[in-house]
Amino acid sequence: MALIDKFGAALVNANKDDAARKAYALRGLIEAWRTTGNNAYRDAAVDVYTGLASEYDGAHGVFTSQNVYSIEDVAAIMGAINSSLIFLGDAIDANQGETMFAGFFESAVNMSGLQQSVPPIPVAKGKFEQDEPPIFYGYPSIPKPPMAGGEFGVAPVFASEVKWDGGQWQVTNARFDAAGAMHASNEFIWFHNDEVDGFPRVSGASTGGPTTLPTTGGSGLDVFWTRLITFLSF
Questions:
Q1: CA dihedral sign, ordered 58, 139, 221, 34
Q2: What does the pLDDT look like over 33-81, one tens digit per residue?
Q3: Closest CA to 35 of 5, 80, 9
Q4: CB neighbours (10 Å) of residue 204?
Q5: What is the C-alpha separation between 36 and 1, in angstroms, rounded?
Q6: Which residue, 101, 97, 121, 119, is CA-closest to 109?
Q7: Of 210 and 89, the one with more pLDDT
Q8: N or C: which end of the chain has fewer CB atoms below 10 A?
């Protein structure tokens, strides 16, 4: 516990000069608060979140402090926004957070080329899983693997890095980063709390944050897809 407290104190003063660094600090501060119960870390997390939100360019779904995003960066940013919406409550503007969550995901994952292809629905899902809207399975502009480039196509995996040049996205490193992809996969599945709880209580920890997480899946549209579909409807 003392070590977590030490890390939390370090994160308060850590370098946070771009969106990814803010996101890593934000996620760490929330966990330090949840574990130690020290409200100073919650207050610091709110400050970092406010700074991150102030950099969000809603017209393009990017952050003004950063134009190159690795898969690790995207994972950290999405995870930090998600955990902020779960734990920071009315200390942040939740409506703004929902918009930022859906807008950045749409832009940096779906439109940037970071998600390089998506498989046909019958290949990826069993019949019992095929009753949802098509947007649940793949963004319309993302190609199927055979059409994603190269002689043999591209597997449905993440690229390593994308860049926003102020007017359009480009993939700057199409290679597959296994560690980064696993990081992103973990963060993304934690959008769905009915499937995997990415925020377990720590035995012996103090009581920072809610003791019961909101359910974001299970019946009807879960929160992640509601966020994205609501954003796309405007």
A1: negative
A2: 999 999 999 999 999 999 999 999 999 999 999 999 999 999 999 999 9
A3: 5
A4: 7
A5: 7
A6: 101
A7: 89
A8: C
